[in-house]
Q: What sequence folds into this?
C-alpha cells in the first residue's frame, strides 16, 4: 500500500512534552479541538501557532510527546492542520494516539529536514524525500497502522469492520 503526501517542515527543538503541545490548563477546559487549537505550543513556542498552515509537518530533533496520555495533544495538532509528525523518538502513548487519530508519527533521523523545506512522505516505502533525494528512511508501518490511516483512525476502522460499511 502506497500512501504519499507532501508537507512543509516545521522544526521544533528539544524534548517536547504533551504539556508543551497543549498546556495542561486547557486540556479539561474544552472538549472541542477547535477551541484548543489556538493554544498549540503556547508556552513552548509563543506565536508558533500563528505561522502554522494546513498540511505542515512537525519535525522534532529529540523525543516528542512525553508525558500525559491524554489525546488532546494529538487532537490539537490535527485541529491546526498538522498532517505529520517526525521525530527520532516518541513518547509511546502519544505515538499510539497519533496513529489512533490518523496522524502519521514517523520515527526517523531528522537531521536533514530543514525548516520550511517541502518534503514528501511515502508510508508504504518508508521514505522521506525532497525533490529526487531521499533524506530519511524508516521501517514501513505495519499494515494495521496503514489501514487505520486510510480509514481516518482507529474508531472509524473498527466501525467499518463491525458494520461492514
A:
Amino acid at each position: 500500500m502506497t500512501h504519499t503526501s507532501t508537507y512543509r517542515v516545521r522544526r521544533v527543538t528539544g524534548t517536547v512534552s504533551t504539556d508543551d503541545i497543549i498546556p495542561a490548563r486547557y486540556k479539561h477546559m474544552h472538549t472541542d479541538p477547535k477551541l484548543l487549537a489556538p493554544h498549540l505550543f503556547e508556552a513552548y513556542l509563543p506565536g508558533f501557532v500563528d505561522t502554522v498552515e494546513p498540511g505542515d509537518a512537525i519535525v522534532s530533533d529529540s523525543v516528542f510527546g512525553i508525558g500525559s496520555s491524554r489525546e488532546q495533544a494529538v487532537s490539537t495538532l490535527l485541529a491546526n492542520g498538522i498532517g505529520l509528525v517526525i521525530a527520532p523518538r516518541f513518547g509511546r502513548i502519544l505515538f499510539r494516539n497519533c496513529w489512533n487519530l490518523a496522524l502519521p508519527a514517523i520515527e526517523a533521523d531528522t537531521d536533514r529536514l530543514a525548516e520550511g523545506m517541502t518534503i514528501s512522505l511515502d508510508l508504504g516505502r518508508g521514505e522521506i524525500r525532497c525533490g529526487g533525494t531521499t533524506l530519511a528512511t524508516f521501517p514501513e508501518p505495519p499494515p494495521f497502522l496503514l489501514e487505520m490511516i486510510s480509514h481516518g483512525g482507529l474508531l472509524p476502522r473498527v466501525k467499518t469492520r463491525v458494520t461492514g460499511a
